[in-house]
Write a structure and sequence with these properties.
The chain is built from 2 helices and no strands. It is mainly alpha-helical and 69 residues long. The longest helix is centred in the N-terminal third of the chain and has 23 residues.
Length: 69
């Protein structure tokens, strides 16, 4: 098995960023309810944020904005 060295503080930084993502998910979900009222630019930005979260493997409830492929 390969030994993996983690520089001190890196794990704390990863955990901190994951905590931020967990706070963003309910906010983007709430914004999804306002999707139909958003401008075209607002919808585009919403879709991009939601796609980034989903690319990270994050489940985003009520994915109203992401266009079906």
């Amino acid at each position: 098995m390969k030994e993996v060295l983690i520089e001190e503080g890196i794990l704390d930084e990863v955990v901190r960023k994951l905590d931020i993502v967990e706070k963003i998910i309910p906010l983007i979900t709430d914004l999804g309810w306002e999707y139909q009222r958003m401008s075209a630019d607002g919808k585009d930005s919403f879709d991009k944020i939601e796609e980034l979260l989903m690319d990270m493997g994050t489940e985003v409830p009520a994915s109203a904005g992401v266009k079906s492929s």
